């Protein structure tokens, strides 16, 4: 789901935050402070009606890439997971285990991954009047299944309008995207993913990857080298809330 934040007029960079109420409503977070050698690995757990159908018909065996979590735990690497509500419903046990693991944090990625702005990489559209309900539905599902209420929201595909940022802020959530595109979506060669991340990452970066497998088949294969490579450059991994000084 690559996109260039710099091309969107609604995209602003924020170096530090205290809480959602103190940040301008039209602000989209793409990175943390550039003064500290800390970065955040983030993983989107997507699920759309089409993906659900692929599961039900047996076209896809699973949209839960267990190996990602195994690697993160084995290397003691903190990470932030952005769940769609539909993914949490499909995988309630892993969802709760992730949420209850102090190494991780769980945030909101919509209910069924629609594109809040069109076109958006083939994602289905959603009416403006339905957007708040979609986000609140995801919030309720994630809270019910995991025991954790998300504080951050990530737009599916990184597609949004200025009014969507205001909407998310109005719901008490902080919109968070990224400044490092791993390119793991649709990429079968882990070397490409590794190169993308190592070349782009700088102080305060938020790295976007995926934890559902499927069309992101090489994420786990690339992850060990990404972790080792960034550690070798002196980076410390933290969760998004810690990166933004908002634990």
Automatic annotation (TrEMBL):
Q: Which organism is it from?
A: Deinococcus ruber
Q: Which PROSITE patterns match?
A: NODB
State the Gene Ontology terms under molecular function: hydrolase activity, acting on carbon-nitrogen (but not peptide) bonds
Signal peptide coordinates: 1-20
Offer one Pfam family short name for this entry.
Polysacc_deac_1
Top-level taxon in the UniProt lineage: Bacteria
Give yes or no: UniProt keyword Signal.
yes
Cited InterPro entries = Glyco_hydro/deAcase_b/a-brl, NODB_dom, Polysacc_deacetylase_ArnD
Full protein name: Lipoprotein
